[in-house]
Design goal:
The complex is a heterodimer. Chain A has one domain (18-134): DsrEFH-like (Hypothetical Protein Ychn, Chain: A). Chain A is elongated. In chain A, 33% of the residues lie in helices and 18% in strands. A five-stranded parallel sheet of chain A has the order 4-3-2-1-5. By secondary structure, chain A is α/β, with parallel strands linked by helices. Chain B starts with a strand and ends with a strand. Chain B is globular and about 30 Å long. Chain B is of the alpha/beta class. In chain B, helix 2 (45-51) links the parallel strand 2 and strand 3. Chain B has helices spanning 14-21, 45-51, 61-66, 82-91, and strands at 2-5, 27-30, 56-60, 78-80, 95-98. The interface between A and B is medium-sized, with 18 and 15 residues.
């Protein structure tokens, strides 16, 4: 094989490496910068054509609550951005059932369609990943 | 998987959450204020003792020592130094920090 052909093969192989990335969101949206920063990183990750999923557990489930109004706080209301994730082919949003229930929340109060999973299922999803990034 | 916790169990629920999601055979490394959880009499003692049945639990030595907790460790928790921290990260395919 010529050097040029070999280089082309190597490049294709490098491009085909897709890893499973999971962003684990465990903080409420406005008290700290974690949720907003996490969302920014998720959007950046979309540019790299990886297998991206988002997990919401503990206070992280509050990030997805519909009807957030941040005008009084004079900070960005980034909650509508979760609805834009679909446009970046990020469609795997997992929300932990136990965390919702512990906070008196129902799935229909969330701003985006999600998959509600048990803590056990969440643990297995985490185990399947190549890279976990927590916020 | 290696789970890393750095918050005191009195301040945050990170450790409880971690233990609820750590599958059998996983490792948990306690660092910074989370090392208090590895000490006798701490609110997390019972949870740590239960966890030791199916998980490996490690605590970072320099953090224990900085807090004067090195003599108060729950039996079964293994103390590692910074080199051991690096080894744990290298030995496990993935890790999750419970911030």
């Amino acid at each position: 094989m010529t050097d040029v052909a070999e280089a082309a093969v190597l490049e294709r192989e490098a491009q085909s490496v897709v890893k499973k990335f999971m962003f684990v969101n465990r903080k409420a949206p406005h008290g700290t910068i974690y949720a907003l920063e996490g969302l920014e990183v998720v959007l950046i990750s979309a540019a790299f054509d990886q297998d991206v999923s988002l997990a919401f557990l503990d206070d992280g489930v509050y990030q997805l609550v519909k009807g957030q109004q941040t005008k009084g706080l004079e900070v960005k209301n980034f909650s509508p951005t979760y609805r834009a994730l679909e446009g970046y082919d990020i469609e795997k949003l997992y929300v932990e059932r136990e965390s919702l229930e512990a906070r008196g929340l129902r799935e229909d109060q969330l701003i985006v369609p999600v998959q509600v999973v048990s803590a056990r299922e969440m643990a297995r999803l985490m185990e399947e990943q190549d890279v976990l990034i927590g916020f | 998987m290696l789970h890393i916790v750095n918050k005191s169990p009195y301040e945050k629920t990170s450790l409880a959450s971690c233990l609820a999601h750590a599958l059998e055979g996983s490792a948990v490394l306690l660092i910074e204020d989370a090392v208090y959880a590895a000490t006798r009499g701490n609110v997390a003692e019972a949870a740590i003792r239960r966890a030791l049945g199916e998980l490996k639990v490690y605590a970072l030595g320099p953090d224990l020592e900085a807090r004067g907790m090195q003599g108060n460790l729950i039996e079964g928790v293994e103390v590692v130094d910074y080199g051991g921290f690096v080894d744990l990260v290298a030995e496990h395919r993935t890790n999750q920090s419970w911030l």
